[in-house]
Write a structure and sequence with these properties.
The chain has about 160 residues and is mainly α. The protein is built from four helices and no strands.
Length: about 160
């Protein structure tokens, strides 16, 4: 019984580490001034570029404007995907915190003299499911951040070329 409860406690500890990791990433996202500024400015930039394209007569400049609009739209699509992923992660965090509270109360109810192994096993499985769910969210966030880093590098390179 002691070993089973130690396993549950270890899983809860891993669960809390994952919650902290997710919360830290969400805070970093919500406080990232570049992303905040881009979410506000990119749609306006696309609109202005589109207006300029509509007024332009030179074919070469039109081609460049269309390419720029396409890159800006791709940037905006990535930003929206990132924002949606973070919104889902925030909901997952809320659900996980609720589940953690439930598990905590269940653990308090567990009395060493009358705990059967099936209750402990279900509790361990519940925790493992939550940890796996958080791992999935963190993996998705890693993928989105990697794409965002690529966009930032491209944006930086384009800015350097423009200078």
């Amino acid at each position: 019984m002691h070993t089973r409860m130690k396993d549950v406690a270890d899983q809860v500890e891993e669960w809390v580490r994952r919650i902290y990791s997710l919360a830290t990433r969400l805070d970093a996202f919500r406080n990232d001034t570049i992303i905040i500024d881009d979410l506000r400015s990119v749609p306006d930039s696309i609109r202005k570029l589109q207006q300029r394209l509509n007024a332009e007569d030179d074919a070469a400049i039109k081609t460049e404007l269309q390419d720029t609009i396409g890159r800006r739209q791709a940037q905006f699509d990535s930003l929206q995907k990132l924002e949606q992923t973070m919104d889902r992660a925030e909901l997952q965090l809320e659900n996980t915190l609720t589940a953690l509270g439930t598990v905590y109360s269940q653990m308090l109810l567990v009395d060493a003299k009358d705990v059967d192994s099936s209750k402990t096993q279900r509790l361990r499985e519940n925790i493992l499911d939550q940890v796996n769910s958080l791992n999935d969210v963190l993996s998705t966030m890693d993928e989105v951040y990697a794409a965002g880093d690529q966009i930032a590098r491209t944006k930086s390179n384009l800015g350097a070329k423009a200078r």
